[in-house]
Each structure stands twice: as C-alpha cells, then as structure tokens.
Amino acid sequence: MTTLAVRILVVDDEPAIRRLLRVGLSAEGHVIAEAASAAEAEQRIGEGQSDLIVLDLGLPDKSGLELLRLWRAAGLEAPVIILSSRSDEVGIVEALELGADDYLVKPFGMRELAARIRVALRHKLQQQGERPLFQAGDLTVDLVKRIVRVRGQDVKLSPKEYDILRMLVQHAGKVLTHQHILRQVWGGAADVQYLRVYVRQLRRKIEQTPDLPQYILTETGVGYRLREADP
Amino acid sequence: MWEQPVPDEPARKRRPSPDALLDRAGGDGRGKLKIFLGAAPGVGKTYEMLLAGRAQAAAGVDVVIGVVETHGRKETEALLDGFEIIPRRQVEYRGHTLDEMDIDAILARRPQLALVDELAHTNAPGGRHPRRYLDVEELLARGVDVYATLNIQHVESLNDVVAQITRIRVRETVPDSIIDRADDIEIIDITPDDLIRRLHEGKVYLPSVAKRAIANYFSPGNLTALRELALRRTAQRVDDQLVNHMQAHAIPGPWSAGERVLVCISERSGGEALVRYGRRQAERLRAPWAALHVETSRESRLTEDGKDVIAAAMRLAGQLGAETATLPGDNVAQEILDYAATNNFAHIIVGKPRTPLWREIFTGSVSGELVRSASAVNVHVISTGAENAAASEGGAGRAGSAARRRADVTPFLWSAAFVMVSVGVGLALLQFLDVRNIGLVFLMAVLASALKGGLWPALFSSVFAALTFNFFFLPPLYTLDIGDPESILALGFFLCVAVIASNLVGRVQRQALAARNRARTTEGLFLFSRKLSGAATLDDVLWATSWQMAAMLQVRVVALLPGDGALEVRAGYPPDDTLGEADLAAAQWAWEHNRPAGRGADTLPGARRLYLPLTTGRSRPGVIGLDNDRQGPVLTPGQQRLFDTLADQAALAIDRIQLVADVDNARLAAEADRLRSALLTSLSHDLRTPLASILGSATTLKEYGGAIAAPARDDLLATIVEEAERLNRFIANLLDMMRLESGALGAAASLNDIGDIIGSALRRASKILARHKVEASVPEDLPMARLDPVLLEQVLFNLLDNARKYAPPGSTVTVRASRDADTVQLEVMDEGPGIPADDLERIFNHFYRVQRRDHVRAGTGLGLSVCKGFVEAMGGAIIASNRTGRPGAIFTLRFPAVAEPAGLDGKA
Predict the structure, then answer these.
(1) What are phi and psi of B164, to 5 degrees?
(2) Pairing verdict, β B145-151 and B33-38
(3) C-alpha span between A174 and A180 (Å, rounded)
(4) pTM value surpassing 0.80
C-alpha cells in the first residue's frame, strides 16, 4: 500500500459524498481538495497541482464527460477516476474512451475506491518504465522475455492471446474497455465477440477454475481488468 | 259568466295545475311562436308580420327573414328594407329550380327571431323536413323565436268544415298542435267587402292557374263563413290561454272534468272525418279523447286498401292528440261499450250506417246497437258525407271476392258430388225409410257443402239438393214438378240450413285463424324474450332483435349503435351494411332528437329506411332502421305496437347488459385498488426495513459511541453495511421493474460467452453467497449466445439472490451451462424447500408474494419478475421447476445458440 501524500481533487455536487470522501481519503493520508461544480473544479485545477481527480459524471452545470474532454485536450495528465450511477455503462465506456483511467459505480465501498486510486497512482508513477516482471497470485508474466507461467507451469499462448495479456498486464488493476483492447491488438478492425472468444481461451489456459476467474475479471458491459499485482 | 263550482269539489282542484304553470314559465329554452292567422289570402298577414318584425328590430331584437313571399306586392316589398334576409336553398326538382327556406343557414346564424311566411307550405323533396311547419318546429326546438303566417283553411281539424263551405278540399294542412302550441295568435281580420274590393284592386295574390276557382272562393258567403271560423278558432285559443291562467293561479272555473270522447273507427271510409269531428268535440269539452278500432275476425279478409283506411284514420287521430287503441273482438258494439265503460268515456262518436235497410235487419249495425244499448253514455252518430266512398269500398270488396270466385270452382264440384252421394244413399235407404225422412240425408249434403266450401257452394248445393230430392223421391218421380208445397218447404229449410251453417263455419274458421295468429305472435314474443335473457353481449341482443323484428314484421332491419362519435351499423337482418348519406343523416337525427326520422316520417323522408330510436330509462343505446318493399308506410299501427313491444324488450336487455358490465367494472376497480394498496404497503415495508436497521445502528453508534465495546461496534457497523447493500439490491430491482414497464429497456444484443457472464455474476454475488457452497460448470465447447450481457448478469444475480434466500446455509448452489441442440441452457439450482407445484408459473408474476399474502418471507417479490422480463426481452425463456430426487428449485434459462464467428486466426 502506497503511503504517498497525494493531492486528490474531489468533484461532486453531493455534500454527503464529498464529506465521506474527505474523511476516507484523508485517513489514507491523502490531501483533499473539493469542488461542487464544474466551474469550481476549473478553479481548483487552475490553483495548483492535483495528483488525481475523482470526478462525478452527473454534475449540475456541465457534464463530467465535457470536463474530461476539455482537460485532456488541454494536456492535463493526472489520472481521473469517474463516479457514475448504475446502468450507465454507455457513459462509463465513453468516459474511459475520453481518457478516464478507471470508474466506480455508486453506491460504492471505500475499499474499492482506495484500490482504484492506488492502482491509478501506481501506473502514473510507473508510466515511464514498464516493470519487467508481473506477478499476482500464481501468475507470472515476464514482458521482456515473453514468458507466462501459471502454477509453476509455462503456458503457451498464441500471438493474439499474448498481446491481450500483455495489455492487461501493462494496466494491471485498471479497467480496459473492449474497444481499447481491440484497437491495440487488432487495429480496430474487429468485433467484440472475437475478443470474448480469445479471452475465454486465455482464461482456460491461465485460470484454475475458468468459470470463476481470479485473474482476468469481466467488467460487464465495459471491458476487462487484470487483477492487481501483488505488492 | 262562470258557473259556481259544485260545493263539494275537493280542495285539491283549486291548486295550480303543474302543466299550466310550466306553460306559463315558457318551458325549456324553446323559442316562442306567434302566428298571424287570416281567413283568406290577401287579408294582409305578411304585411302585419313584417310590421311586427320591424317593431322588434327597433326594440333591439336580432331579427332575420327566414322566408317571405311578397308575390310582387309593392307595399310588402317596401317593408323588406332593412331586414337581413337569409338566402334560400336552391333545389333541383323535375327540371325546375325551386327555392326553399334554408333551415341550416338560419340555425347557423342563430337569430333571436325569424320571420317565416306560409306555415303550411310543402317543401321540395330532398330537404330535411317535408313541410315548412316541421322546419319551424325545429327552429323553435333550438331556441329561435318565430313569427309565422297561416290561413284558416290549412288547419287540420277544420279541413272538412272548410271543404263543406268552399267546396274546395285543401290538401296542405297543418296539425292543430302547432296552433295550440303557439304562444300567441294574432288574427288579421278585414270585412269580406273590404277583401273583395282589394281583390278587384289587384292587391291580392292569386296563382294564375286557379284564378277562376279562387274567384268563386271569394264570394261574400264563403268569406263570411271563413271569417267566422277564424274568429272562433282564435277565440277558442284565447279561451284556452285564459283557462291556463286561471289554472296557474288556482282560480276556480268551469273547466270540465273527464267528459272524455271516444271515436270508433272501422274499415268504412270516412274515418278521418270522424276523427276530426271527435277532435273538435274534445276541444270544446276540453277533454282528452281516444280513437278505438275493434278488430273483427272478418278483417283478415280485408284488402290492403281497407287496412290502409283504418291505419290512416288511426294515424291522424294520433297526430291530432288522441290515444289510440285496437281491440280484438267480434261483437263490435259490445266491445266499444265495454271499453267506454271501463275507461270512463262519456261520449261515443260513430259513423252513420251505410248498409241498406234489409241487410241491417239481418246483420244489425254497430251504430244502431250502440244507440240501443248505451245507457250512461252519449252516442253521436255522424254522417260523414263521403258519397263516393260506399261504392268504391263495396267495389273493392267485391272485386276481391270476384277474383276468388273465378278461381275456385272446385267447391261447387264437391257440393254436386255430395248431393249425388246422398241421392245414392237415399235410394239405398228407400226400402227402410219413409220418403220424408230421406230429406234429412240431403240435409247432410248441404251441411257438408257448407263445411267444405262456404256460403255460395252451400247455397248451390241446397238448390241442387232440393231439385234432386224432388226429382228422385217426391211423387211424381223423375219429374221436376214442384207442385207439391212440401218440396218448397224442404227447399226453404235446406236454404236456411245452408246459410246458417256456412255462416257459422265461416265465423268459426275466421276466429280460429285470428286466434292462431295471435297465438303465433305471443309465442314469438315469448321466444324472443327467452332469447334475450340468454344473450350475454350487446351484439347478441342486437342480432336477436334484428332477426325477430325482420321475422315478425316482415321488414328488413338494421341496428345502429354509437361508436367513434358517429352511429355505425352493428347488426342487421338480412345482413346489409350499406347506408347512404341520407340514411346516415336520418339515423343521426332520430338518435339526437329521440324521434322517428326517415321514410314515412316527418323528417328526412327521402331516406331509404325508417329510423326509430331505442330508449331505455337510463340512456339511448341506438337506432333501429326498418325497410320493406311495400308502398306506403313501413309499419301499420298494429305492427307499430308489435315493434314497440320488441323494442322495449330489447331496450331492457341492453340495460341489463350495461348494468352487468358496470358491476364487473366496479368489481375490477375495487380489486385493483386492493392490490395497489397492498403493494404500497409491501414496498414501503421493503424500503423501510433496511433503513430502520441502518438508522437504528447508526444512531446507536452516534449516541453511545465510546460506551460500546469494539466487537459490538463492529457488529453494528456490519449491520449498516449489510442492510445498505440489501436496500441497494431492492432499489435496483425496483428500477429494473420500472424500466421493463416503461419499455425503456434498451437491451443491446451482442454475441456473448455465457461462461464469462456466469463468472462475473458469481463474483458480484460472492458476498451474499458467503454462507453457501457454490459450484459452476460450463462446458468447453459451449456456443455463444446473442444477448445483452448486463441484463443476463442481473438475471443470474437475482436468481442467486433468490437461491440464497431459500436455501439453508451450508447447502450448495449450482450454476450449470449446457448445450441442447441449437439452444444454450443455463440452470441455477439450490437445495432449499423447492416451489409448490401450482406456483411454478405464478412465481414470475409481479408482486406474487403480495398476492399470496405470504407472511413467511416478507417482501414484494420483484426479483423473479425482473428475471422473466429481462430474459424474454432478450428472446429467451425461463422456467421454474423442482429437482427430482431431492428438494430444491431449478431455474432454467434457454437462449438460441449462435455459431462461432468465422475467420478467427490462430487458435492455440
């Protein structure tokens, strides 16, 4: 668990949510700034450096997606985690495509939020250099030597399968949308069902109980997420 | 001038009569009618009407001219200045273009007062009403006041009197009801001498065709008589108004109490004159009156013309305000007297007998008998002066029977045969019987002829029998010597027997026929009422009614009911949907105004059918249209009564059906209400229970914070989390339910790996399934299915939640996917108590648990309903069943399988 004192900007119009996040994230040791509307958020961003932004999609004055688009266009690089209400998979996917790093569905528990923040910060810090060796549970992936081992055994993967796994490893703990994976692996010229077929095959090779996967997790309607690396 | 009231007159007669009060109050939004009445053309009615109209206009009333005939008279034309004249309607008729008053234009214009000339005018065919006075009635009904002009010779009840005076019978008549209903009558009177002078000055309009005849009309004697008629009629009306005034103010006066008048109608012509006379008497006595027709068995032999005479007279009586009645019976005079006695008639009016005296001696005459037998009743025997009628009526009757006679020679042959047989028998019995007694055998032959053939064959056989009896049996034998006076006696007896027997037989046969007809009608009505009581829907009632009317009245029937704002044909016999525009208009009018319209009626007579509205006590369900191929009116008065009976029964049946429907609706509404309130209670419970726990735990922590030990505190915190998550699940189901209901589901179908979705559902449910064992099995080669992954995950989650609720902790929950031909099958199984057999389908109903009032597990029971909705939205199916061999429920989902997409590269 990282204990960096990080500046987190919380953008949500609900006072209760802001209070909850303030208390919870402060307990983790972070420094919190708050904004209750898009206008306030702009102001806070202008005032100083934020290391991470928690953004509610349902803001009163401007849509969260709009803000995100503007920020990324203006070159803001800080990771953004969006909060969204249930059954808004379309909005979530769109936000991820616009440059959000991860998402949480309300109502959420504090532990999940902490995990998302941790993963997001870790990847930010490590963006420049890829960690060569990924390890989580019984799964070991060596990105340099292109070796995948599960429960002590080497696993042979087809090129596409490996590409998918590599992408997941590079963003371990973070969600990747179907479209993103398709773009990276297939150059965008393929249907989601191809991906699903490959993921199923991948699971059969890697998971102990493919029907109850532990590593490659489905984010229904959004994409896939690989389990976080062990600390 | 007034008689003193009888001292013991009860006090209630002094109270104001309600009718009189209503009359004075001006009724119900109807317009007021003022008639300018004149004795003859040219007295200046139109002129006076226009003057009166002008005065009203000057007083600020909105006046228009409906129709005014100036006939070129300059003074009248000058008066038209300044009035708004509603343009007339142009009608094409037989190559000519006629102008008629445009009633629709007037109604659209909605004036306060309209001036209408010549109330008795007949409109050209094609208009809404055939007569102008009917147009005026409609204007009055819609609240427009009317001034109208009328000549005295056009009044219906005075038609005969005017004809007697002027020797001209006027055809265009106006019913007395119009005059009685008029709020005001102004008589335009000038002396005959003045009128004749005006005629010579050319100031009187005369249609050039009839100039000569009308010149005769304008004799001083005629004009004086007409003038007196007009004055007297107006006086009568004024008298009525005075009586009304007195009755309204309870001023005692000489109004008569119940000297009712009865007019007797038979098939003899002159009935209409009797009716008019009766009306005048009734008017004079200011009493109600009635017209009675006694239907003898002889009537079945009447020609159509004869029946029409009766029908016309009865109709006229009805129009003039009489009650009409038709009674069956053979002794006409007795029936009339009985009716008069029962219904308290003081005066009976009957026509003068026209049969020759000798016949009257034999058969009697109705009027004679009435005069003889009436005790407390006054009998008025009226000569109706219908000279040609007797001849034509007798002629018609004779023509009919002549036709019959020409056709039927067989009865005479039979008679001859009977007589020859009796000759034979007589000869055979000659050994044993005296000659005189042989005559009795011939009597049998005559009787047989009477029974077989009726009067004339019986007479023929009696003559023939007498001759043969004489020839064969009376000395000197084999000669036709009628010297013996005894044979003449025999002949005489034979003839008497013949006549009496045949008469008797004829009467009995006719009575039997009449009785059979009546029985048939009654039987028909009985069957009809049984059919109706069995009818379950409105359409059934209409079909049964149409068929019955068609059968009993020999007409074609259509039944129209309102639907979509206009009337439409709902049933008919014979089935026939076509209604022309005129018919639709007539049907609509009949329904709106609750009066007959169409063929033979006062309104829109150009339609093909006669439309009669159906009324029940509560409503007006529709209209019946009748049509037949006969000329003349569609229904005779007798048939009209039958129609009324049928229509009443139908109306009752319709009422009953509507009431039943109302009761059903009320019950459904009550049930829906009950369900709704039960639902609200249950939802409220489902929402509030977790909140209660959360609030309770949180406030406890807040209040007692430090005083609670750490484990207990953790407990409370855990409760808060659990209950919040439970509330979240419930709200999720509620929202899903609303999405399903509103149709805004937005299912996005794509090819999916079911194993994938099972995995994510199990992961989501891992916390609630913490106390159960979970097994999942997905075959490697499971084909993909086309569905929405988010929805399927929710379905699985709900099924797992459901399993968790019913399966005991520690038991196993299994999820199994399999392939079955071209479907993909998913099963979620638990080891709980299972589902009762008759609930296997119902558990998917909304609020199943609410309907069952299941208090075992409180809750609204939305989860399974959401499952079914989602699964079906994705084109799949869900079934609940029980495990075989051990307790537990199985939920099976099935989706069509899809082949793997081709073109994948590089399988390992």
Answers:
(1) -65, -40
(2) parallel
(3) 12
(4) no
Contact B784 A197 (CB under 8 A): yes
* Mean pLDDT across A77-96: 86
- Greatest CA separation found in chain A? 55
| Torsion sign (Cα): B208, B212, B218, B222 | negative
**Exposed/middle/buried for A13, CB within 10 Å: 0-12, 13-18, 19+?**
middle
Yes or no, beta carbons of A193 and B758 under 8 Å apart: no
Contacts 24+ apart (CB under 8 A), B760-765: B760/A217, B760/A218, B760/A219, B760/A220, B760/B793, B761/B792, B761/B793, B761/B796, B761/B797, B761/B800, B762/A211, B762/A212, B762/B796, B762/B800, B762/B815, B763/A212, B763/A217, B764/B793, B764/B797, B765/B796, B765/B797, B765/B800, B765/B801, B765/B804
What six digits make up the tokens of B560? 């129209």
pLDDT for res B467: 79
For residues A109, A114, A119, A123, the Cα torsion angle rounded to the nearest 10 degrees is: 140
The Cα–Cα gap between B480 and B344 comes to 62
- Which pLDDT belongs to residue B392? 37
Q: Which residues of A fall below an 8 Å CB-CB distance to B?
A: 86-87, 89, 107, 109, 156-161, 191-194, 196-201, 204-205, 209-213, 217-221
* Mean pLDDT computed over A208-231: 88
In whole angstroms, give the CA distance from residue B97 to residue B298: 50
Question: Are B79 and B211 contacting, i.e. CB atoms less than 8 angstroms apart?
Answer: no
Distances (CA, A) of B447 to B441, B459, B503: 10, 10, 11
Is it the case that residue A36 has pLDDT exceeding 60? Answer: yes
CB-CB contact of B5 with B252 (8 Å): yes
Give the closest residue to A66 by CA, choosing from A87, A89, A50, A82. A82
- CA distances for B468 relative to B430, B450, B481, angstroms: 15, 18, 11
What spatial distance separates the first Cα and last Cα of chain B, rounded to whole Å?
Answer: 130
CB contact under 8 A, B901 and A193: yes
CA distance B256 to B260: 10
CB contacts, 8 Å: B752 with chain A: 193, 196
Extract the residue ranges of chain B whose pLDDT is less than 50: 1-13, 209, 255, 387-405, 856, 903-908
Tens of pLDDT, residue by residue over A117-150, are 988 888 776 654 556 788 888 899 888 888 899 9
Nearest C-alpha neighbor of B538 from the set B460, B655, B643: B655
pLDDT value, residue B9: 44
Burial classification of residue B143, based on how many CB atoms lie within 10 Å of its CB (0-12 exposed, 13-18 middle, 19 or more buried): middle
Over the stretch A89-121, which tens digit does the pLDDT of each residue have? Answer: 888 899 999 989 999 988 888 888 999 998 888
Of A109, A197, A205, the CB nearest to B904: A197
Give the CB-side neighbour count of residue B473, counting CA atoms within 13 A.
28
Question: Does the distance separating the beta carbons of B721 and A109 come in below 8 Å?
Answer: yes
Give, to the nearest 10 degrees, the angle between helix A178-186 and helix A159-170. Answer: 130
Closest to B752 (Cβ–Cβ): which among A196, A212, A217?
A196
Q: Transcribe B134-178 into DSSP letters.
A: HHHHHHHHTT-EEEEEEEGGGBGGGHHHHHHHHS------B-HHH
Contact B549, B643 (CB under 8 A): yes
Asked whether the beta carbons of residue A220 and residue B793 sit closer than 8 angstroms, the reply is yes
Do residues A36 and A12 touch, judged by C-beta distance below 8 A? yes
Distance from CA of A218 to the nearest CA of B (A): 6
H or E element that contains B611:
strand B610-614
Q: How confident is the model at residue A215 (pLDDT cuts 50, 70, 90)?
A: very high
